[in-house]
Automatic annotation (TrEMBL), chain A:
Family under the similarity heading: Belongs to the CEP19 family.
Name under which the protein is recorded: Centrosomal protein of 19 kDa
Recorded GO CC terms: centriole; centrosome; ciliary basal body; spindle pole
GO biological process: microtubule anchoring at centrosome; vesicle targeting, trans-Golgi to periciliary membrane compartment
From TrEMBL, chain B:
Gene Ontology terms: biological process: cilium assembly; microtubule-based movement
Highest taxon above the source species: Eukaryota
Upper classification of the organism: Eukaryota, Metazoa, Chordata, Craniata, Vertebrata
Keywords (A to Z) from UniProt: GTP-binding, Nucleotide-binding
MF terms (GO), sorted A to Z: GTP binding; GTPase activity
Entry GO terms, CC: cilium
Cited Pfam families: Ras (PF00071)
Sequence segments annotated as region (Disordered): 204-224
Keyword Nucleotide-binding: yes
Keyword Metal-binding: no
Organism: Paramormyrops kingsleyae
Signal peptide extent: none
Protein name (database record): RAB, member of RAS oncogene family-like 2
SUPFAM superfamilies xrefs: P-loop containing nucleoside triphosphate hydrolases
Length: 157, 224
């Protein structure tokens, strides 16, 4: 038996990963709903994705689905549990003026940024933590110009 | 004559910042550039700032020793007030140094430095100001780039990360040093004018109440 994965998505209630696949033997399109169990807003999406990818029941169907995609789908489920809105396509984050957002939206954007912050964070408990961490970067003459300075004429407005 | 009551009216007053060993350092910059995160990284865990929510202001009190003398530092953080893209004049009042932050991942926060800097100089034409490129952990390549704004204005530029701690402590220590040396050598015209105005107000006794005094008085009560 072999299955060709076509599309993969999520169902919020109850939380599940949904796979549309083709059964290569019969040529029929089928849908498989894989419940995501023991999953809460505190769960580790990467481990949950790994568990599903390697599960005896489902792994034969998920060969064509990368673990990264499964992880992203679990993140969607978790964000839903956290009450965060779905990530919608947004304008170039570099050009969006967050000063103009409402409280809730701003809190949401800050939460998104916090993910990166937490990932890169060095905590006091970390063995390699240095309180006064100084790093010298090349002197300004050695630096390249920044594209952000190209439209200097803006200043005239 | 200003009696006890009159005195307390001007206590918070930012008149305390006239004392030799006390400085006020303000943070400026757009929403979500990491101003509070930088403060928290410098002061480390468990530090609880004072929230003056009515004024959209967060106050971080810090004390340190410089040349054997205790120095009290009040860091003023914006607590959302920046969303009006302008700060209340009392935010700038008597500040001795400014830490101006942008997010290296968001161009608009860099572009808006121009506005923040313009407003800063309206109120505080001379105080030292440090430009801070925050969140370099997100993209270390930015440290090889030159951000012309700082150079054009003749301001020092620090590449920092509140997340991994790069140059955060150095930034604040240097800011305190700059604030102290500004205070000791200041011949700021605005300072003198404000001093004159204050003496004048004091002579008029406690009856005076222009808007800022009201604000300061209320702040005083909140702090007490």
């Amino acid at each position: 038996m072999s299955y060709v994965a076509k599309r993969c998505g999520v169902k919020f209630s109850p939380p599940a990963i949904v796979l549309i696949y083709e059964d290569a033997d019969t040529g029929k399109m089928r849908q498989r709903i894989m419940p995501v169990r023991n999953f809460s807003k505190f769960s580790d999406c990467s481990r949950a994705a790994e568990r599903l990818k390697n599960s005896l029941r489902h792994s034969p169907y998920l060969e064509g689905v990368s673990q990264e995609q499964l992880e992203r789908l679990h993140t969607v489920l978790r964000d839903h549990l956290l009450g965060r809105p779905l990530l919608t396509p947004r304008p170039d984050p570099g050009d969006e003026d967050l000063n103009k957002l409402e409280d809730e939206e701003l809190a949401c954007r800050k939460a998104q940024m916090d993910e990166l912050f937490e990932r890169n964070r060095r905590r006091e408990e970390d063995p390699d933590f240095v309180y006064d961490l100084e790093v010298e970067f090349p002197e300004s003459d050695a630096r390249e110009p920044c594209s952000w300075d190209e439209d200097e004429s803006d200043d005239a407005f | 004559m200003a009696g006890d009551d009159g005195g307390s009216l001007f206590d918070f007053d930012q008149a305390t910042y006239d004392a030799d060993e006390k400085v006020k350092i303000i943070c400026l910059g757009d929403s979500a550039v990491g101003k509070s995160k930088l403060m928290e990284r410098f002061l480390m865990d468990g530090y609880r700032p004072q929230q003056l929510s009515t004024y959209a202001l967060t106050l971080y009190k810090y004390s340190t020793t410089i040349d054997g003398k205790t120095v009290l530092v009040d860091f003023w953080d914006t607590a959302g007030q920046e969303r009006f893209q302008s700060m209340h004049p009392s935010y700038y009042h008597k500040a001795h140094a400014c830490i101006m932050v942008f997010d290296v991942q968001r161009k608009i926060t860099y572009k808006n430095l121009t506005n923040w800097y313009r407003e800063l100089r309206e109120y505080r034409p001379e105080i030292p100001c440090i430009v801070v490129a925050n969140k370099i952990d997100a993209d270390m390549k930015v440290t090889q780039r030159n951000f012309n704004f700082a150079k054009k204005q003749g301001l020092p530029l620090y590449y920092v990360s509140a997340a991994d701690g790069t140059n955060v402590v150095k930034l604040f220590k240097d800011a305190i040093k700059l604030a102290m040396s500004y205070k000791q050598n200041s011949s700021d015209f605005m300072d003198e004018v404000l001093q004159e105005l204050e003496n004048f107000e004091l002579e008029k006794k406690e009856g005076t109440s222009d808007k800022e005094d009201d604000l300061l008085q209320e702040m005083d009560q909140q702090l007490a």
